Amino acid sequence: MEELEQIPENYLKFIQNSSGLYEIRVQVGNNIFRIFCFFDLDNLVVIGNGFQKKTQKTPKQQIKKAEQIKMDYYDSKK
Q1: Three-state SS for 75?
Q2: Who contacts 9 (Cβ-Cβ below 8 Å, separation ≥6)?
Q3: Is residue 62 a contact partner of residue 76, using CB atoms and an 8 Å limit?
Q4: pLDDT 10s digits, 16-65
Q5: In this structure, are residues 58 and 23 in contact, taking their beta carbons and an 8 Å threshold?
Q6: Which residues partner with 26 through β-bridges?
Q7: Is-contact 45 31, C-beta < 8 A?
């Protein structure tokens, strides 16, 4: 996606080894929040789950939850 190249990675980052998930990064004061999202037809951003990040590494259970939300989204479109 050409548009993604224009968004700095400190705001939107692709999650490696995922099925197309991205992580929106939001910092409010000293608190850092992560919100998973994905694209539907390259132009609609679907927001999934979010959490407050307290470590460098994204917890696998949060990625798994986001993957399930994405699957549920596409299942509901059928």
Answers
A1: helix
A2: none
A3: no
A4: 889 899 999 999 998 889 999 999 987 778 999 999 988 878 888 999 99
A5: yes
A6: 33
A7: no
The whole-angstrom separation of Cα 11 and Cα 27 is 9
Paired residues of 45 in beta bridges: 39
Amino acid code (one letter) for 49: N
How big is the chain by its Cα radius of gyration, in Å? 13
Q: Do you know the residue count of the chain?
A: 78
Residue 73 pLDDT: 93
For residue 43, give both structure tokens. Answer: 């132009």
CB 21 within 8 A of CB 70: yes
Does the pLDDT value for residue 1 go beyond 50?
Answer: no
Task: Give pTM, 2 decimals.
Answer: 0.79
